[in-house]
Structure formats: structure tokens, C-alpha cells
């Protein structure tokens, strides 16, 4: 049952495109995580992968997965409930996720063409979500 916000009209302000993008990004991130994990395992077998850097890449990948779950939870919650705070938290976490994606795109120990492709797709999704989140927050505030 949807609650009507006090002091506002009964019109729905939630962003359907943003909600669809959150859903698709959740599905894509599962693919991204598995692909990145398998590529790290592959690179550790094929190349001389220093143990400390292998550990760093794995820890950052798992940390990124944790951030992604939290980001999608708050983003979905904020959009569906038409609340600025959870959507703002999600937007802030998106910045951290973007930085981690750039790490895997540019500064990772070994970078394969597949790494570039999956990270560019992820960064495009983050960019679209960020724009739609800002628009949704502006709609919720007004």
C-alpha cells in the first residue's frame, strides 16, 4: 500500500527508468563480479602475479561487491519510497564504486581487453544512474 506524502500531491514521483536501471545493473553486476573474479584467477595462473597485488585485487573486488549491494539497496529504497536521503546515500556510494571500477580499468595489476569492456559498460551504467538519481532527488525535493 502506497503512502501519500504529507504536503504534496498524490502523484507518483518515483523514476521508472531509474528503477529499471537499478534492476539491470544488479543483474549486470553479478556477471561483472563473476567475470572479474574468473579473470583474476586466470591472470594469476598465466602471469607472474605478486601475491600482495593478487590479494589487493581480490579484496577490492569483494569490497566493491559489498558496496554494490548497499548502493542498490539504498537506491531502490529511496526511489520507491520517494525519499531523498537513501537515494543520496546511494549516489555517494556510486562515487566509491566508480573509483573502484576505474581502479580495475586503469590501475589493476594486469588488464585484459575483457577488463576494459566490462568496466566501461559498468561506468556507463553508473553514469546513467547518477544522472537519473540527481533528477529523482530534485523531483523529490520540489
Topology summary:
Blueprint: H1 16-46, H2 51-81, H3 84-107, H4 113-141
Describe it.
This protein has four helices and no strands. It is mainly α and 142 residues long. It has one domain (16-141). It starts with 15 loop residues before the first helix and ends with a helix.
How many domains? The number is 1
Q: In this structure, how is the largest beta sheet organized?
A: none
- Work out the helicity level: over 70%
Number of helices: 4
Query: In angstroms, what separates the terminal alpha carbons?
Result: 23 Å
Give a brief rundown of this model.
With 142 residues, the chain is mainly α. It has helices at residues 16-46, 51-81, 84-107, 113-141. The protein has one domain.
Keywords:
mainly alpha, 81% helix, elongated, 4 helices, 142 residues
Amino acid at each position: 500500500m502506497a503512502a501519500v506524502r504529507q504536503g504534496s500531491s498524490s502523484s507518483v514521483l518515483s523514476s521508472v527508468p531509474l528503477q529499471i536501471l537499478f534492476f539491470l545493473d544488479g543483474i549486470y553486476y553479478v556477471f561483472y563480479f563473476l567475470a572479474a573474479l574468473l579473470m583474476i584467477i586466470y591472470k594469476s595462473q598465466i602471469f607472474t602475479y605478486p601475491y600482495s597485488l593478487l590479494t589487493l585485487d581480490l579484496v577490492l573486488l569483494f569490497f566493491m561487491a559489498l558496496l554494490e549491494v548497499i548502493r542498490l539497496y539504498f537506491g531502490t529504497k529511496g526511489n520507491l519510497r520517494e525519499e531523498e536521503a537513501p537515494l543520496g546515500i546511494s549516489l555517494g556510494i556510486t562515487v566509491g564504486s566508480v573509483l573502484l571500477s576505474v581502479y580495475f580499468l586503469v590501475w589493476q595489476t594486469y588488464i585484459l581487453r575483457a577488463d576494459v569492456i566490462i568496466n566501461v559498460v559498468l561506468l556507463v551504467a553508473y553514469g546513467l544512474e547518477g544522472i537519473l538519481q540527481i533528477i529523482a532527488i530534485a523531483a523529490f525535493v520540489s
